[in-house]
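ok trying again, last paste got cut off:
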Amino acid sequence: MTAQPHRSYTPDPQEPVLYELAPLRLTDHSITLQLCVRRSEDGAWRGRLRFIDPSSRETETAEIFCGVSEGELWQSVRGLGQHHLRALYQSLT
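nice, full thing came through this time. structure:
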């Protein structure tokens, strides 16, 4: 009996990863908020926001987040206040 080699799956670093963020609360409903993060060919981390309204309609920003590390990218995402997120959403709808 021959042993099978151990193969581990290593995801492509350029393949986007989707993170669920705290929902954006508007006066009459809440919007699902996701962050799509990927590592670009130049090594920078880039991200875009995706908004999903109660009727499941999706809108998203361009890659407005960028950092030399994933931590730096997350720091800029966390720096956005609710009023900025609300303004971004309203500018897309």
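cool. The CA atoms of residues 13 and 39 lie 6 Å apart. DSSP finds two helices and five strands in the chain.
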